[in-house]
From TrEMBL:
<dbReference type="InterPro" id="IPR005135">
    <property type="entry name" value="Endo/exonuclease/phosphatase"/>
</dbReference>
<feature type="domain" description="Endonuclease/exonuclease/phosphatase">
    <location>
        <begin position="4"/>
        <end position="219"/>
    </location>
</feature>
<dbReference type="InterPro" id="IPR036691">
    <property type="entry name" value="Endo/exonu/phosph_ase_sf"/>
</dbReference>
<protein>
    <recommendedName>
        <fullName>Endonuclease/exonuclease/phosphatase domain-containing protein</fullName>
    </recommendedName>
</protein>
<dbReference type="GO" id="GO:0003824">
    <property type="term" value="F:catalytic activity"/>
</dbReference>
<dbReference type="Pfam" id="PF03372">
    <property type="entry name" value="Exo_endo_phos"/>
</dbReference>
Length: 425
């Protein structure tokens, strides 16, 4: 996906630059901000750039185009925002995207903050991202120059991001997406950005934004690359804290440990641990299984039992409803324990319902620790998962294959310091 405040789409240089970016990055979804031509020309430009369909917002400041394979349904359309439901043939879910071109006035921008707040209330667990030109920075370090900044506008923008449950999609390239001359001095700002909610981060944990070079516009094109995340190897065995809450856990351990084993000493101990690990794997799969699916099924069961209780207010219906609630609470506790252990957050009080926080914390940590680009031995920057793996292996192979030079002088000095124990006699 490419989002770009092009500052006029009709210019020959802009068309040439845009076509090159579309071809170079195989763009299938395009958002143009400030096309500066009549809305009646949208279909012509959509066809000209090789897209299937296109739509614009009510002020004709935002154009959205997509290739075949996408199904798009516009839900909100106003002078600063166009919000749509987006689905692709390769997805088994529906995502939501909000594309913005914010007003330059702090007061006028408040209408956009309110609109985003209303949209966020309806998102829930739906994947959602927001992108475009916000015409305001969210923090002081997103600005370079000597002109005074509107601190109130910055605070309102940051508050909107937080209230909507949004966070930055990681980016590479220049920190500033816009540059211009004000009062005879050049200033730099990060006015363009892409934000995501937790569900988008979960679906596309490898999402990254590239700030491409500015050329025909004073704004950097924003290239969003979607990825489910970097490939991982086989999962290692991990002891789960939630096992300790199950009444059969100690019995499973005792029965496995008491079985006779060949060998002696540490080898005997190793065989017992290996057998116990396999026994716990099997027991975990049989007893706990997919805890997230169990939570969803338990919630649905509570809903059905509650409907049944409303129809037939009997003792049996009340018992079944209470049992369904108890099962849901148990599965929710298992889920929270799982995420807390994965996040390795120790300072929150036991029993707090912080599942959403733990999940977000873990996804952020994974993003920080993941390697998305690396420099190989030839000095080239590679970004694909296969190339990164090849470069890492080649580096350590060259490191371990190197033969350190022999320092004869140092060896002679060392030998001289050793007193001779055998004499010529």
């Amino acid at each position: 996906m490419l989002i770009w405040n092009i500052r006029g789409i009709a210019g020959r240089a802009s068309i040439r630059r845009l076509k090159k970016l579309l071809r170079l990055h195989s763009v299938t979804f395009l958002v143009i901000i400030e096309p500066m031509v009549d809305a009646g020309q949208l279909d012509d430009f959509t066809s000209r750039f090789g897209f299937h369909l296109g739509v614009c917002n009510s002020s004709n400041k935002i154009w959205v185009m997509w290739r075949s394979g996408f199904a798009v349904n516009v839900l909100v359309n106003n002078d600063q925002l166009i919000h749509m439901q987006v689905c692709h043939d390769s997805w088994n879910f529906v995502a939501h995207g909000s594309f913005v071109y914010d007003k330059c006035s702090r007061v006028e921008r408040r209408a956009l903050w309110s609109a985003l707040g209303l949209i966020s209330e309806d998102m829930g667990t739906k994947p959602w991202f927001v992108g475009g030109d916000f015409n305001v920075v969210a923090a002081a370090d997103e600005y370079a120059g000597q002109a005074a900044q509107d601190l109130t506008a910055m605070a309102e923008f940051a508050e909107c991001i937080s209230a909507c449950g949004l966070k930055e999609i990681p980016f590479s390239g220049s920190r500033y997406t816009w540059t211009g001359i004000r009062q005879g001095r050049r200033i730099w700002k990060r006015l363009d950005r892409l934000l995501m909610n937790l569900e988008w981060q979960r679906r596309f944990s490898g999402s990254v934004v590239k700030h491409l070079n500015r050329a025909t516009s004073d704004h950097s094109p924003q290239l969003l690359q979607l990825s489910p995340g970097l490939p991982t190897g086989p999962k290692s065995f991990c002891f789960q804290d939630m096992w300790l809450n199950h009444h059969d856990f100690l019995m499973v351990v005792r029965q496995c440990w008491d079985q006779p084993t060949d060998g002696y000493g540490m080898f005997h101990f190793f065989l017992k641990l290996k057998r116990l690990k396999q026994a716990l794997r099997t027991w975990n799969q049989d007893v706990f299984g997919n805890i997230f699916e169990k939570v969803s099924k338990a919630e649905e069961e509570v809903r059905l039992k509650e409907l049944q209780l409303e129809v037939t207010d009997s003792d049996e219906a009340r018992v079944q409803w209470s049992q369904a609630q108890a099962a849901l609470l148990k599965h929710l506790t298992d889920e929270e324990t799982f995420w807390k252990q994965k996040a390795r957050v120790k300072w929150l009080r036991e029993g707090d319902a912080n599942t959403r926080y733990f999940h977000s914390y873990l996804l952020d940590k994974r993003a920080r620790l993941s390697i998305t680009r690396i420099c190989n031995l030839e000095g080239e920057v590679v970004e694909s998962a296969d190339d990164i793996g090849t470069a890492a292996v080649a580096f350590f192979q060259s490191l371990l294959a190197e033969v350190p030079p022999i320092n004869n002088t140092a060896i002679c000095r060392l030998l001289e310091a050793i007193p001779p124990l055998v004499t010529p006699d």
